[in-house]
Specification:
alpha/beta; 11 helices
């Protein structure tokens, strides 16, 4: 039976629409899943490119949509933005809501291989396969052949690893990637190590191979398009390691044109920071999505 999208809410926004949808997710173990989708006004004339935004720990599909400040520039550029949730909801797994950095609100954009979590915690496939298929099947005018990805913190980790893995595999599903304050070296920091040990049967070693951006960027051959921003007043820098990612990128031969990492004086980890540089990120992706 075909998946049915239920409209939860819809608001006119910068002459386009921001709509929240709900559906029964097969990939997440038949749980209800929600996402927000901004469609610019020009979608009325035909399919538009799409930018996928992955939010961070404790967030939902609403944080980026409500606080990111992305839509004005996306509307001007004629780009849709897809805002998935950060984890499954309602799985009922023991201790899944016991902490802020694991389980509910903290799916880490991977596919779990540890049996306790493997039925439901498959945010990688949810974002990269299920959501595009469901949206296309519903006849929503999005051109998934013109797709890019960005995110914040845990979502920045997700964006980087999803993008780099798509380049390495040759699928090249995304044209560009950007991130605000991303977890760049999860296999060497507390947030990432906790996630890898919890979700993955192979623990940190499995995570290091599949889901560590600072390792993956060294495996990429050829051109990539990456922008990273972070702030000097970010109290979570010890969890992020942007300098490690930058060194790995340069060591692999990716220059400033292909991998740009920018440090901003006095900015923290919040949406005040994100919204300050939101316009830069939308226009960065527009260069590739509209090429």
């Amino acid at each position: 039976m075909a998946t049915t999208l239920e409209t939860v809410s819809s608001n006119k926004h910068y002459e386009g629409t921001l709509t929240k949808y709900k559906f029964k997710s097969t990939v997440l173990g038949d749980l209800d899943a929600q996402f927000n989708l901004f469609l610019p006004a020009n979608a009325a004339q035909g399919k538009v490119p799409v930018l996928v935004y992955l939010a961070g720990l404790t967030c939902t599909e609403d944080n980026g949509a409500q606080k990111g400040g992305f839509m004005r520039d996306a509307a001007t550029e004629g780009i849709a933005i897809l805002f998935p949730d950060t984890s499954p909801r309602g799985a009922g797994i023991e201790d899944e809501a016991a902490s802020l950095d694991f389980g509910v609100g903290a799916g880490f954009y991977l596919n779990a291989t540890r049996s306790k979590w493997a039925k439901h915690y498959n945010m990688l496939d949810h974002v990269t396969k299920e959501l595009p298929a469901v949206i296309e099947a519903a006849g929503i005018p999005i051109d998934f052949s013109r797709q890019s990805i960005f995110g914040h913190s845990m979502g920045g980790h997700g964006a980087l690893t999803i993008y780099l893995n798509s380049v390495i595999s040759g699928t090249k599903q995304y044209r560009s990637c950007s991130a605000f304050s991303p977890i760049c070296e999860p296999s060497d920091v507390p947030w990432g190590q906790k996630a890898f040990r919890g979700y993955l049967a192979g623990g940190v070693e499995e995570g290091k191979e599949k889901y560590d951006a600072s390792i993956l960027v060294g495996k990429v051959k050829g051109a990539i398009n990456v922008l990273i921003d972070y702030g000097t007043a970010d109290t979570f820098l010890y969890q992020l390691h942007p300098e490690v990612f930058l060194k790995a990128a340069r060591d692999a031969g990716h220059d400033e044109v292909r991998v740009r990492v920018r440090c901003h004086e006095g900015y923290d980890h919040s949406y005040y920071f994100i919204s300050s540089f939101a316009s830069d990120h939308i226009h960065f992706h527009a260069n590739f999505l509209k090429a």
